[in-house]
Amino acid sequence: MNHEDTGDLVRRAGQGDADAWRILVGRYSRLLCAIARSYGLSGADADDVMQTTWLRLVERLTLLRDPARAGAWLAVTARRESMATLRRLGRERPLKGPGPSVTGPHHVVFGRDLAASVATALEAIPPRCRELLELFAGSQRLSYAEISAALEIPIGSVGPTRARCLTRLRRQLDGVA
Amino acid sequence: MSGERPTDDELCALLRGLFPPVSDRVLALGQTAFSWFEPAASLAPLTSETIAAPSGVRGDGSRLLTFSGPRVSVEIEVRDREIVGQLAPPSAAEVILRSPGGERGTRTDEAGSFALSGVPTGVVSLLFRLTDATSVVTSWIRV
Description:
With about 180 residues, chain A is an all-alpha fold. Chain A is built from eight helices and no strands.
């Protein structure tokens, strides 16, 4: 898949280009899923968050101050919508861990012990680490700014946190193996 | 597994295989949103929302919402499945209630007020087509 500049895609979508919009949706859907899930939302509640977040981008396509930062804008909007959904559901604060979900780590059936061990190790590391590794592992390359906005960590911590999470995963792997 | 520990790159490649692709259903949520793009309309974002005290009779309080655009503003009251609203400055306009389930329309009276019943549950937005051929959309709200 080509990697066109997010700012260009937003501008093109703002001129009615449906292909540009489709690429944006492909690029950021996993990010929005991960954010909704990090608030303990799943199923119809997570769908509500994603739907509303995309609608908000549609209504502001031609108004965004910095189209190149649309990914971070989506992340912030999805967090805000997740909190609004939690309020509507009458919950005071996000659930602690993310619930089981359709896109959560799972075993892929192929006969390699290492992959199975990594899958097991993933379940054992903190949810925040799992989320971060999922965002890095997705087929769509997200920028540090986008991951920073999604996980609410300073942009300077994204790299070190990734290294720390990989270390945790390794330690878990060593324990498992 | 001493001796043959995976490198970071190998580990990341393995991780890639462990997270399944985003489902078509989730992608469709994003795709569909684009059909609500109204490039010619100016946006009236939500600027205030208050919840009136529960009436005690109906059980649910009503919500008062204000959307303020560059040239017009809209005030609406949402109660049960009904929206009554007022366009300011008052003007004649076609009013379209947009929702993923479809659209329905009405018109404002000379004083700029309008009413819509049977409002669907979920996200909705109002589109106003004014007599000077300009149009305004409110930001999406959940009702």
